Predict the 3D structure of the following.
Amino acid sequence: MSNLEGSVALVTGSGQGIGCAVVQALVLQKAIVCINDRDQERAQGTVDWVNEVGGECLSVPADVSDCDAVQEMFQKVVDAYGKIDILVNNAGVTRDNLLMRMSEEEWDLVMAVNLKSVFNCCKAAVRHMMRKRYGRIVNMSSVSGIAGQVGQVNYSASKAGIIGFTKALAREVASRNITVNAVAPSFVQTPMTDGLADRVGAEAMKQLNAAIPMGRWATPEEVAHAVLFFCTPEVGYITGQVLSVDGGMVMG
Ligand code: NAP
C-alpha cells in the first residue's frame, strides 16, 4: 500500500467505530488526518490514539448535516494545511422502524446526517480539490442501500442515495483527477450495531447471520482497508464504483 506522506485527509464521524479505524489506517500511511465528529469529546479518543503513535491530526468537530458548520470546518482545514486531498464521508446514524411506525423526525434525521452531509462535505471539499486538480473521495454506503433492509426505509434510502450521488459526482469531476467511490459494508461490530440483537430479536439475528457466506461480521479495520485502497494516489483510474465489504452477502 502506498505511503500517503504529505496528504491531508478529513474523515467524518471518526470519533469511534469505522471512522476511527479509517483514521488509524490513514495515519499509519503517514497522512495528516482531520478528525470530525459531532463534538470534541467524541473525537478525543481518536485524537489521543494519533498523538500516541506520533501522527499528525487536527480535531474539527461539527455537525456534518449543517451546511454552515461544514463550510467553517473545511475553512479550518484549508487555513491549517492549504489543501484537502482525501475526504471520507463516514458519519451516519440509524433510526430503525417499520414504515408504518416511522416518524417524520426519524426520516429527516437519517436523510440529513447520512445523505445531506455527503452533499455538504463534497461541495466544500471539491472546490479546493478542483483548484489542485487532485482528490480522493470515499462515501460510506451500506448493503442496505443495495438490497434494502426491513425496518430501514430511511437508512436504505439514504445509503442508496449515496450510491447515486457517488456515480453522478464521479462523472462531474473525473476530468479534474478527482475520484469518487463508495464502500458498502454489511454488518460491522461497532457502537452503531451494539445491542442490535436485543433490538431485532434472536430469530431475526439468526437469519441475518445466515445470509453472510463468511459466517461472521466484518471488523472496522477490514472496512478501513477498503477505504484506504480508494484513497491511494495510485488508484487513480477507478471512479464511480461501489465496493461491497460484506463477506459475500450481496453478489452480482
Ligand atoms: P458509529 O459507531 O455510530 O460511529 C458513527 C460516528 O458518527 C459517531 O461517532 C457519531 O457520533 C458520528 N456522527 C453521528 N452524527 C453525526 C453528525 N451529524 N456529524 C458528525 N458526526 C456524526 O457508526 P459505525 O458503525 O462506525 O458506522 C460508520 C458508517 O458506516 C456509517 O455511515 C454507517 O451507516 C456505515 N455502516 C455501518 C455498518 C455497521 O454494521 N456498523 C454497516 C454498513 C455501513 P454520535 O455517536 O455522537 O452520534
Summary: The chain has nine helices and seven strands. The domain at 8-245 is CATH 3.40.50.720 (Rossmann fold). The pocket of NAP is lined by residues 12-13, 15-19, 36-38, 42, 63-65, 90-93, 113, 140, 142, 185, 187-188, 190-193 (CB under 6 Å). The two ends are 27 Å apart (CA to CA).
